[in-house]
């Protein structure tokens, strides 16, 4: 498959990133030394009187080496220039270590994923082959990705999607496969964990637990602007509280990130800087739809799936057996276990089948005893 790795701006309101004082001093020093050398090549050096005005041009000296007074002027001018740059950049409120982190994406972030419509088709074909029961989810994502590339878009993109269905049908596995096939980082935020709102948006400065949200952390560390973000069990969404009393709701945190226009200029509560979060591939999972708030459902494509049929489980077993280098006899063992359960039994899911495969793989890899 053909993949793209093109950069797009990540901080839309930051036009210039301020240089550090040491960088400016180095440039001034290099320029002044070169200037004096060039002048010395064209005419003899002439003595000049010292002048205390900081805004005057530097004068040529007999020697190329800069004097203590030259270095003092450079430091003073660099300090003023840094202050002016920071005031214009919108980053003056940040600590030096945070500015350093943002500087890694000053030139933008990469958008990874299929670069042609044909590459999108190939990815969808692989997903259909591996997980045919996920076709109701694969098809709209496939269509979104095709349309995005056809319009000149970069990387993988699709509308936010909520995948609802019983546990163990492969909702999280599906998201992981999309990320792998698109060469994108994947992160999972578990709503049942109790602090998902803070994990999505982050916590503003002033609180003991202040930190960026996990999507921003991932984008900064990976330099990727369209990671696959899985919000697991969104049906359990509610308010959560930090140890210092700050509260947030994951629904509130998500609404601004899922709306295309607001996501382009989403303001991070930790950095207090606007980021373009509109390229994120959002996949939310749920067991039931009825408990998901309406404002969240209205911003997503909602897809309901049924439980797995025996043939779906067997397809999964065959694919996983090939990945694990297991033989046909191992496939037959798991197939007999599947057929032993009555239709609709809770054990007929991918988690149970995967555990059976783990056991068979452990036996196959066990040392032979003599």
Summarize this, please?
The chain has 370 residues and is an alpha/beta fold. It contains 14 helices and 13 strands.
Can you walk through the features of this model?
- The chain is an alpha/beta fold.
- The chain has 3 domains: 21-90, no CATH class; 156-304, Rossmann fold; 310-365.
- 46% of the residues lie in helices and 14% in strands.
- The chain contains 14 helices and 13 strands.
- It has a 5-stranded parallel β-sheet, with helices on both faces.
- A hairpin with a 7-residue loop joins strand 5 (202-203) and strand 6 (211-212).
- Helix 12 runs antiparallel to helix 13 (328-340).
- The two termini are 47 Å apart.
- The model is unreliable at 54-62 and 239-247 (pLDDT under 50).
Furnish the topology, listing elements before pairings:
Blueprint: E1 3-8, H1 21-42, H2 68-89, H3 96-103, E2 109-114, H4 117-130, H5 135-150, E3 161-164, H6 171-182, E4 186-190, H7 196-201, E5 202-203, E6 211-212, H8 214-222, E7 228-232, E8 239-241, E9 247-249, H9 250-258, H10 260-264, E10 266-267, E11 274-275, E12 281-286, H11 294-297, E13 301-304, H12 310-323, H13 328-340, H14 350-365
Parallel strand pairs: 3-12, 3-13, 4-7, 7-12
Antiparallel strand pairs: 1-2, 5-6, 8-9, 10-11
Briefly note the CATH topology name of the largest domain: Rossmann fold
Number of helices, counting only DSSP H or I runs of 4 residues or more: 14
- Could you tell me the number of beta strands? 13
CATH architecture of the largest domain: 3-Layer(aba) Sandwich
H-E string: EHHHEHHEHEHEEHEEEHHEEEHEHHH
Question: What percent of the residues sit in helical stretches (DSSP H or I)?
Answer: 40-55%
Instruction: Assign the CATH superfamily of the largest domain.
Output: P-loop containing nucleotide triphosphate hydrolases
Into which percentage range does the β-strand content fall? Answer: 5-15%
| Average pLDDT level | 85
Please state how the strands of the largest beta sheet are arranged side by side. Answer: 4-7-12-3-13
Number of domains: 3
Protein name: AAA family ATPase
Domain AAA+ ATPase: 157-308
GO molecular function: ATP binding; ATP hydrolysis activity; ATP-dependent peptidase activity; serine-type endopeptidase activity
Pfam family, one: AAA
């Amino acid at each position: 498959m053909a993949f793209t790795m093109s950069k797009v701006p990540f901080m839309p309101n930051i036009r210039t990133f301020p240089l550090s004082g040491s960088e400016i001093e180095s440039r001034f020093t290099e320029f002044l030394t070169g200037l004096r050398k060039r002048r010395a090549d064209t005419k003899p050096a002439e003595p000049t009187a010292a002048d205390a005005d900081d805004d005057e041009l530097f004068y040529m000296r007999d020697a190329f080496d800069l004097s203590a007074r030259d270095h003092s002027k450079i430091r003073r001018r660099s300090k003023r220039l840094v202050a002016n740059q920071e005031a214009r950049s919108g980053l003056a409120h940040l600590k030096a270590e945070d500015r350093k982190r943002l500087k890694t994406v000053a030139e933008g972030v990469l958008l990874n994923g299929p670069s042609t419509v044909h590459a999108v088709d190939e990815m969808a074909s692989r997903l259909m082959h591996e997980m045919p029961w996920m076709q109701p989810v694969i098809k709209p994502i496939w269509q979104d990705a095709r349309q995005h590339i056809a319009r000149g878009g970069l990387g993988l993109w699709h509308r936010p999607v909520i995948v609802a269905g019983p546990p163990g049908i492969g909702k999280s596995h599906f998201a992981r496969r999309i990320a792998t096939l698109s060469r994108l980082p994947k992160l999972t935020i578990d709503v049942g964990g109790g602090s998902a709102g803070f994990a999505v948006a982050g916590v503003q400065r002033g609180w003991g637990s202040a930190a960026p949200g996990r999507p921003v952390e991932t984008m900064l560390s990976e330099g990727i602007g369209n990671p696959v973000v899985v919000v697991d069990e969104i049906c359990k969404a509610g308010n959560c509280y930090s140890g210092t009393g700050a509260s947030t709701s994951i629904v509130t945190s998500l609404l601004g990130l899922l709306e295309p226009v607001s996501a382009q200029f989403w303001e991070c509560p930790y950095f207090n800087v606007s980021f373009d979060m509109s390229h994120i591939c959002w996949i939310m999972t749920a067991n039931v739809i009825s408990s998901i708030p309406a404002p969240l459902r209205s911003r997503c494509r909602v897809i309901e799936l049924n439980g797995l049929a025996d043939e779906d489980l067997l397809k999964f077993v065959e694919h996983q057996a090939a990945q694990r280098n297991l033989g046909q006899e191992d496939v037959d063992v798991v197939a007999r276990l599947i057929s032993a359960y009555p239709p609709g039994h809770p054990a007929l899911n991918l988690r149970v089948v995967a555990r059976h495969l783990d056991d068979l793989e452990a036996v196959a890899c066990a040392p032979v005893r003599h």
